[in-house]
Amino acid sequence: MRDAGAVTALVRDLQPDAVIHFAEQRSAPFSMIDLPHASMTQVNNLVGTLNLLFALRDHAPQAHLIKLGTMGEYGTPNIDIEEGFIVIKHNGREDRLPFPMQPGSFYHLSKLHDSHNIQFACRIWGLRATDLHQGVVYGNQTDEVAMHPGLATRFDYDAIWGTVLNRFCVQAALGLPLTIYGKGGQTRGFLDIRDTVACVRLALENPAAEGEYRVFNQFTEQFSVKALAEKVREGRAAHGLQTSIVHLPNPRVEREEHYYNAKHQKLLDLGLQPHYLGETLIESVIESVERHASRVDPVELEQPNVDWRRGGTAGWGKTERAAPMPSEPRPVVVLSSSRKPRQPSSASTSTRLAQRR
Amino acid sequence: MRDAGAVTALVRDLQPDAVIHFAEQRSAPFSMIDLPHASMTQVNNLVGTLNLLFALRDHAPQAHLIKLGTMGEYGTPNIDIEEGFIVIKHNGREDRLPFPMQPGSFYHLSKLHDSHNIQFACRIWGLRATDLHQGVVYGNQTDEVAMHPGLATRFDYDAIWGTVLNRFCVQAALGLPLTIYGKGGQTRGFLDIRDTVACVRLALENPAAEGEYRVFNQFTEQFSVKALAEKVREGRAAHGLQTSIVHLPNPRVEREEHYYNAKHQKLLDLGLQPHYLGETLIESVIESVERHASRVDPVELEQPNVDWRRGGTAGWGKTERAAPMPSEPRPVVVLSSSRKPRQPSSASTSTRLAQRR
Predict the structure, then answer these.
(1) CA distance B45 to chain A (A)
(2) Do B46 and A50 count as a contact with CB atoms less than 8 A apart?
(3) Residue ranges with strand state E in chain B
(4) Which of A115, A288, B275, B280 is the most buried (most CB within 10 A)?
(5) Which residue is closest to B252 within chain A, CA to CA?
(6) Which stretches of chain A are DSSP H helices?
(7) In whole angstroms, how large is the CA radius of gyration of chain B?
(8) What would the pLDDT profile of A221-251 be if each residue is shown by its tens digit?
């Protein structure tokens, strides 16, 4: 995406009716590791999207851009969150204006920068775009993916690339405590991966008008982190299994108790049939983790390794801070792959966790 | 600013009490020339500011960052523009939120991206920052600069680096028609360069609190472009000189008639004593242009050379579009320097202008 010539040639040669742009650095903790990672995240995401916008202007101005944004652009305002725009009455006048945004990481900020750039391109060049402000995705199966094990997607559970429900499911499968960052009142929008795919299809089948920049809030339910943990615990209890919940110091800077009511009507109006989060889904994820339990690295589950205030806490983080900044960010070691298979010992892991707390 | 190591070393070694950050690509038309210029503007401004934010976090977290933003971040909403934040009542609840922004160029967008990044850094790291949302500056003299001709600052009147009142003054000095883009109802905040300096000093002497991100709208009066042109014409008429006003097709995409009422109270509350735009100032700028009239390039005054829809209209713009994108933006030829002195012939220039219209 950062190779302008390649992006231009692709759009020129393909003459697409629509472009679905998911090709961005996607992790908030990654962007908070240090300056090179923050800078790389913002430059990568922003330049890639700019390259695409200019290519569309010059070679496929009628194409419909479907761009993956995030619910995290909004932050946690004390008013209802609308879908992209809000009518504001002020001193006797009113206008429909972009919803005020308060993103919570350099990654989320990069998505907001993109949103503003895309909105501008629609206004001045007449491009058409749908910005999918997506919530946290859970689940690891769609009908298509389920057809063959070779189609299995990544399942990230670590603190950099993973998401919270994945972490809870892995912890539950291994008999470890579920780890909540801070009080756990942090509330976000969530959706099933099958609904993600359905939403993209709905946007595709119902394109934005010429010059229109529109935002769909793409999630189906909102949960607090604490409520999610309790859902997992209840699911296990139904099978006679005990699960404990622990609270870790929050590595992020965020409100831990707050109002949250985000609208998500537009995709429903287009016909979305939500898959709500139920015990069946949670159980199926946990079962799938159990089948691969030997490949889980329990160290990844213990403590978050990026702190919003101080950055990456791993060894490379410290050396990078002391040394002159490299021009390119160093690769992050992600341990949630199968590179380091080892048998987790839930006894010793629990001991280590207990010592740390 | 883009050399993270240099910025870090500077902040670490200097241990500043305050940092005044003006070091950004500053031209909206420059950012609209083509993709490389848009991309360079946003990456340059964003990365420079990120480098500074991390350096402040690590080496001078108590320093007060004074950052040059722009009134252009707001765009032209149909409600009063507040200073950075607005209290929004919505569905029975209320919150003080960032004012919704609608910037009008990739340059103005870069300033908005900066604003969001700075605001986030204040929130999570406790930095203190003042974002000066500055209007259009006019005038070319401060008491200090007036002390010696060698201290004279740049005076840009071309379509890339110049500002509208400068262009009108040069046109008036040469006896050329004043060129308004579109209807001329575009209204913006303006301020005298002496007030710019005073505002920075006031921000410096009254620093933001720890963790505070504040916005000062830094201008003293608002004018439409048409009203500005009429002010210049009236000033000339008082000396018995006739000045004509012409309207050119607007190269920008912007509202040409709109509501505009932007607050600018905070700097007044700190003690700003505005220099309002009067005939004396306009006359002094015109006189100063007349002294250097032989160095004016009248071609620069005729037509804007960057179009918001199509980009740069000069020859290099066309070749750049056809060829593969270079990795670095090519330099823009700025003719408002003294490199090409030639005697303007107001007769032939007027003819050319007339033919073009």
Answers:
(1) 11
(2) no
(3) 18-21, 64-70, 85-90, 93-98, 128-134, 136-138, 178-181, 187-192, 213-218, 221-224, 245-248, 306-307, 311-312
(4) A115
(5) A124
(6) 4-14, 28-31, 35-59, 106-125, 164-173, 193-205, 225-237, 266-269, 279-291, 299-302, 315-322, 346-356
(7) 21
(8) 999 999 999 999 999 999 999 999 999 999 9
Distance in Å, alpha carbon of B78 to nearest chain A alpha carbon: 5
Give the pair of three-digit tokens for residue B310: 């199509």
In the chain, the amino acid numbered A151 is L
Alpha helix ranges (H) inside B22-103: 28-31, 35-59
Domain B4-356 grouped into CATH 3.40.50.720: yes
Residue from B2, B7, B8, B35 whose CB has the most chain A CBs within 10 Å, to mutate? B35
Helices and strands of chain A, counted as H and E runs: 12, 13
Which residues in B lie closer than 8 A to residue A321 (C-beta atoms)? 58
Query: Helix or strand or coil: residue A248?
Result: strand
Report the Cα A114 to chain-centroid distance in Å. 15
Under an 8 A CB cutoff, do B103 and A113 touch? no
- H/E run at residue A148: none
> Tokens for A235?
């699911």
Closest partner residue to B91 (CB to CB) among A8, A46, A80 is A80
User: Residue B279: which residues within 8 A CB-CB, separation 6 or more?
Assistant: B231, B234, B235, B238
Q: Return the domain boundaries, chain B.
A: 4-356
Tokens describing residue B170:
């040069």
Q: Which of B13, B108, B325 to mutate to test the interface with A (most CBs of A within 10 A)?
A: B325
Spatial neighbors of B150 by CB under 8 A, at least 6 apart, are none
To 10 degrees, the CA torsion angle through B311, B313, B317, B318? 110
d(CA B66, CA A218): 38
Counted across chains A and B, CB pairs separated by less than 8 A come out at 151
Q: Which of B116, B127, B307, B310 to mutate to test the interface with A (most CBs of A within 10 A)?
A: B116
Written as six digits, the tokens of B212 are 């505070």
- pTM given for the model: 0.89
User: What residue of A is the nearest CA neighbor of B122?
Assistant: A309
- The answer to whether the CB atoms of A42 and B36 lie below 8 A apart is no
Q: Which tens digits make up the pLDDT trace of A132-167?
A: 999 999 998 899 999 998 998 889 999 999 999 999
φ, ψ dihedrals at A42, nearest 5°: -70, -45
**pLDDT single digits (tens) B121-174:** 999 999 999 999 999 999 988 999 999 989 988 899 999 999 999 999 999 999
CA angle (A15 as vertex; A14, A16 as ends), nearest 5: 90
